[in-house]
Amino acid sequence: MRIIRAEEVWLRNANCMNDFSEIEYGFDCLNHAFKSRRELFKELFDISFDNFSAELEWSFNEWLPHFRADTYIACLSEHEADEDEIGRLSMWRAYGGDSGVAVVMNSTAFLSPSDALGAYTSPVAYLSKEQFLEKFDEVLLNIKSNSVIVNEMGKYAVLNTMLEAFRAAVLCTKHPGFREEREWRIVHSPQYHVSERIRRDIESVGGIPQPVCKIKLENVPSENLIGAAIPDLVDRIIIGPTRYPDVLRAAFVALLGERGVEKPEGRVFSSDIPLRR
Length: 277
Known about the structure:
This protein is of the alpha+beta class and 277 residues long. The chain is built from eleven helices and eleven strands. It has one domain (2-270). The chain has helices spanning 2-6, 22-36, 38-45, 52-69, 89-95, 108-111, 129-145, 147-153, 155-171, 230-233, 245-258; strands at residues 8-13, 72-77, 101-105, 120-123, 125-126, 173-174, 183-188, 198-205, 208-216, 234-239, 268-270. The radius of gyration is 21 Å and the shape is elongated. It starts with a helix and ends in a 7-residue tail after the last strand.
């Protein structure tokens, strides 16, 4: 209700996620892979760019405390067409509460490349340490196969690209046991990607006062941010298992109408999953 009424979405500090060890898991996978392939990494990069691997390692270690303590995330799940009427039972069980509501969103805003916000979307990689190492090897092989292009980019462009890749690996890697979630993340690190469009406020969430980063749901077509306004973003709303489906449906039809959604009654559905708690 608050997302639609305020036309904004909140990103919470990564330390407040359900499993606060998630970022450490991503770091452990990256650390294991980098140490295992340190000599190969140096062989690939240092021959072209003097002292490259040492500079990358230093830069990453300098930023790591900020990535850990000052990164804000919103988590979403991929949605299948055959879930349009009922939603996904595992998500209702975990997050539905007694009056759960799923907002199904169109993907345009998530998949269109844009720097308008300084916040970026990424699918989560569900990998064991061994699987992560295999992916790391694939990346190094691709770099080796495209060494001419890499060299043409120049040292500092490649350095920034690899730092971004390492950051994404830390923030968007999870244990394969969570694969069912099929998670995507909106990620923002205010000190790393400074943004004038994302504001940070103090809010109480679950009785815990905390800083949150707020993204206004509006289009910025001049910077290729499209599909983010409520009428474009919301594909449908599914009312989860609840004692009051008709009341909730009426409320969300009205809320969508207030935000300029045409024929909102055609976008709100009630799930008929007989969920027991």
